[in-house]
Amino acid sequence: MSPERSLATEVIVVGAGLSGLQAARSLVDVGIGTVVLEARSRVGGKTLSIPNKNAAGVADLGAEWLNDATQPRVYQLAARLGLECTDVKVQGDSILQGFDGALIRHNYGEQAPLPNGEDEVVKRIKETFEEEYSKIRLETFDDFPHDGITLEEFVRSRGGGSATLATVAVWTRVMLGCEPSDLSAAYFFIYCKSQGGLMKMRSAKVQGKYVTIKTGAQSLSEGLAKSLPSGAVRLNSAVELVTQKKSGVEVRTTDGSVFTGRKIILAFSTPLYSKIAFVPPLPAAKASLVGSTKLGYYTKVLATYSKPWWREKGFSGASQSFIGPAAATRDTSEDSHSSFRLTSFIAGGPGEQWAQLAPAERREGVLAQFCHMFGSNDAYQPTEYIEQQWSSEEWSLGCPCPYTPPGVLTRVGDCLIEPFGHVHCIGTETAVDWKGYMEGALESGVRGADEVFKLLR
Amino acid sequence: MSPERSLATEVIVVGAGLSGLQAARSLVDVGIGTVVLEARSRVGGKTLSIPNKNAAGVADLGAEWLNDATQPRVYQLAARLGLECTDVKVQGDSILQGFDGALIRHNYGEQAPLPNGEDEVVKRIKETFEEEYSKIRLETFDDFPHDGITLEEFVRSRGGGSATLATVAVWTRVMLGCEPSDLSAAYFFIYCKSQGGLMKMRSAKVQGKYVTIKTGAQSLSEGLAKSLPSGAVRLNSAVELVTQKKSGVEVRTTDGSVFTGRKIILAFSTPLYSKIAFVPPLPAAKASLVGSTKLGYYTKVLATYSKPWWREKGFSGASQSFIGPAAATRDTSEDSHSSFRLTSFIAGGPGEQWAQLAPAERREGVLAQFCHMFGSNDAYQPTEYIEQQWSSEEWSLGCPCPYTPPGVLTRVGDCLIEPFGHVHCIGTETAVDWKGYMEGALESGVRGADEVFKLLR
């Protein structure tokens, strides 16, 4: 455990995901020596792009979509790095699968008709949500109406029945990998508002258009990393100990290397703080936040086909299901590579149940669902089938974004972005805009770099 | 931060309370080199005895009573150390103070009559509790019926109304410094059963008799410490970092000293684990237990008088109150020293509210309550008034014993006593019998020493 090597710098960034790399880029831009320590053998964090097996192009196993209008940071980064984009496909009908497995076919972008006249209730719930957004000041991190109850309790208190709750559950599963009974109503409203509101986020039609990066979203991280000075990013460098002294910080990695700096930026999600030993210990409120912030269950499943068979039947490839295994699907084909793909998410409570099964059983369940929803046995013949279980990734613990149960924000919510000693906290969950997205990661990186810069100069 | 000194031993015990000192004593007895590191400048943990100001003898600010029949370890330790004991006084009437402040005088040891015919409900609740104890196997740490609900929910589900709940709240306040809505019903049942059941614990009449130690309960810790080899107990040695290696552990204290050993025994309550950095980090389940285990609000108040004025009016000095500030009082006089004392506990929700006030206001509130309950202005003239706020003690965080909210035991309860790597866990909360008491501390010390001994020899 004795130091193999020792290196002094000005700022140590822990985590080479988009937020950490952006923080490093911003600091280097203003002449501050920065080292990025990354536990994994790759950069990119929750962006991960791997080559397709049976076609050109790549598969995005993590973050994927960028919006050309509302997400300026990430869109401009893609442009600056010269990355080519493809429009996300939205033509055709969508499918809603009800509790009994029965299917409702409806226009993409419109709410599917619900049983028992709950259409009206869902509409009212959406309006109620919009009202709640107006009460939130995202910039302050100290105002959390309805943090005392779960989102489920909130929906019930506004007259939502089983179909409404099931609809809301599809939202929380796809957005956060959890159930409406898992998270604080306030957290959900903050999360929605941060993304411009539920409606803007849940439809590609409303604001600008969504695109994907032909070489994969991980290209953003790789491009940022390459732009840093040689040796600035240290892979396979898992931090085990952060010791704060008056003059700065000392960081030890599991291979015994010691890095010293004046400030440190932690660029990973709150639950991962539990993997590092802190001397002195985390402030009690921060420790409480770390212990009570959760990441939901979230698996991304990509089934690639030699032809877009669902389009032939007039389907957009978009669906949502109250029963799963997949809570939702989207067409993420790259037509120019003849890579035709249905991407789906096994998430939340049903996701956790399906996780107990063997991979082959899960695959059978997903493909049977595709076959049933889009009405073709072609569903059973993917040329490639990939499952990325973010929840079991050691250095992510889940995706896209951690959430808090009731009461936590009110009690210790301000600790999310509050620096302590020489330690600064970034990551997409700390962003004002687009929490949980690549856009939020970049915003938080810029903010963290600015915080540190003001203290150092 | 570079080591000032370095010391190698076989076993490192962290915490010189009763459990840690007993573990060290048991290890030294079988020839195993042991060092005890204590953050405070004194031994004793939650036993603390200070000299009376205006009389001979001492005041016990922490644990105090021993039972001569059901607590063999602690009673025998007192005898072995030659400590003189005094019987606890139980003669006279008791007082129950209701919601409206109105007083009900009743025989000591009997349940006070409750309004609205809730006597019967309280009686049934007690019987229901007794039934629950029979379902629990304390030795296994894996069977937790009713862990999904709070004690309040359990009581309501069995027909308990406001007076019943208020009675149960007095129990949880005095026993754990919390409200029935704070803790898991299962935890409460386990805690009660560990002490032989609610009734045995709440009455001095049932089994054996209770005594106090004339020189104070801290004499037990001091006696144990003195019996250890010179230099074995290191005061002012707060541990900041525990690093586990294949061969053993390395422990760093805040003054830069480094201790190495083959095994380490942590002899403090679960919430205090958050004060130490662990490399590698705590197992996820243990970290979750640490983050969700709580200590209630608990202040012990001792008012000493030149005469036992309450006895002159036929009172035992025992009371319980639904409104506080003191949830309960007892006569803890040492007649032979002419030190006549009412000891009370400001605990749970009301305790937390009273904690917001200035000490003088709190004192005024407590003495006014004594005056009202026992009917004499003599209450306002203590010769000495001491308040010990255990909840704000840096190295205790509360007393007597941490508890868990619903769901925690079921999820991660077995981590309470489960060793990880070279680390073993003791403390009164881990005991099978008399959790939360000095007896439980001693039991856990013996068990921890035995665990380690079996691995080393």
Protein described:
Two copies of one chain form a homodimer. With 457 residues, chain A is of the alpha/beta class. The first copy, chain A, folds into three domains: 6-45 and 217-293 and 404-456, FAD/NAD(P)-binding domain; 49-91 and 207-216 and 296-392, Polyamine Oxidase, Chain A, domain 2; 115-202, Guanine Nucleotide Dissociation Inhibitor, domain 1. Helices cover 32% and strands 21% of the residues of chain A. In chain A, the strands form five sheets. Chain A has a seven-stranded mixed beta sheet with strand order 9-8-18-19-20-17-21. A five-stranded mixed beta sheet of chain A has the order 1-14-13-12-16, with no helix packed on it. In chain A, 53% of the residues are buried. The mean pLDDT of chain A is 92. The A-B interface holds A 1, 240-241, 243, 245, 250, 252, 274-282, 284, 287-288, 290-292 and B 1, 240-241, 243, 245, 250, 252, 274-282, 284, 287-288, 290-292.
